[in-house]
Amino acid sequence: MEKGLSPNTLDAYRRDLEDFARFLKGREATFPPSRHLITEYLFSLSQKGRKSSTIARRLASLKSYFQFLHREGWLQEDPTTLLEGPKSRRRLPQVLDVAAVERLLEAPPLHTPAGQRDRAMLELLYATGMRVSELIHLDVEDISLEMGFARCLGKGSKERIVPMGSKAAQALSRYLAEGRGQLVKAGHETALFVNHRGQRLTRQGFWKILKGYVRKAGLSQEVTPHSLRHSFATHLLAGGADLRAVQEMLGHADISTTQIYTHLTQQLSRQQYLQAHPRAK
């Protein structure tokens, strides 16, 4: 509550602490654990083949927990004070090219309510760069078709307004006028996107829908719920958009998080150069 963390972050912290608790139980260890025992736990994760990013997050969860206990006076000292996690290399996100995005966006059929919903969701994701968690929590009142923007709540419950283009507005307009009314079972439902039961769509539900359209579009590369967000940012920067403006639209607290997309645009430029210049190879 004090940090304003999202429910997804809280769930991740809870799972991390429960995993550590199982480790302690298996060792029949007393509480609080020693620094040596915490190091042993992190080493056991490495032996199990866990990624360095996973181990670093587990340590961050433990650090947050023990810092809290120490600050509140439950522990005389924090056993994680001198511990450092593994240095993880930041992986460049997977990005679709414009042609692949268009194939994916055009995959949902427009003659069914579900297809109209799915087209509106995919168009809105690519038009705004929203996270999927932000998309599924949208209510009907969060969309302004007249003004061409959507209001969403990002990490830490921070509200932001993001613009959307005419294609997304057209898809949303059709879905609201035709499809949504056939999907909603209860008149009081406020969710913008609902499932076949007329209830708010879940992240798992969206992931299942996306995988179906990836197959239908014939895309061979890996596509995740975040792919359209990554593509949105990369295509904007490649088109000359200002980095600060993209940062605001993505809802990044730190611009260094947004700068990773500049590396992708540089890679794309080099690929285009190698393909187009007659003396590049």
What would you say this structure looks like, in words?
The chain folds into 2 domains: 7-71; 98-275, Intergrase catalytic core (hpI Integrase, Chain A). The chain contains 11 helices and 3 strands; from the N terminus they run H-H-H-H-H-H-E-E-E-H-H-H-H-H. The protein is mostly helical and 281 residues long. It is globular, with a radius of gyration of 22 Å. The chain is 56% helix and 4% strand. A 3-stranded antiparallel beta sheet has the order 1-2-3. The model has no long low-confidence stretch (mean pLDDT 86). Helix 1 (7-27) packs across helix 3 (52-71), helix 5 runs antiparallel to helix 7 (166-183) and helix 9 crosses helix 11.
Q: Can you summarize this structure?
A:
By secondary structure, the chain is mainly alpha-helical.
Number of separate strands: 3
- Counting helices, strands and paired strands, the structural category is mainly alpha
Report the principal-axis shape: globular
CATH superfamily of the largest domain: Intergrase catalytic core
CATH architecture call of the largest domain: Orthogonal Bundle
Average pLDDT, to the nearest integer? 86
- Note the run of SSEs as H and E: HHHHHHEEEHHHHH
Gyration radius (Cα, Å) is 22 Å
Strand content: under 5%
CATH topology of the largest domain: the name is hpI Integrase, Chain A
Topology record:
Blueprint: H1 7-27, H2 35-47, H3 52-71, H4 98-105, H5 113-128, H6 132-136, E1 143-144, E2 149-153, E3 159-163, H7 166-183, H8 203-217, H9 227-238, H10 243-250, H11 255-276
Antiparallel strand pairs: 1-2, 2-3
Helix pairs in contact: 1-3, 5-7, 5-9, 9-11, 10-11
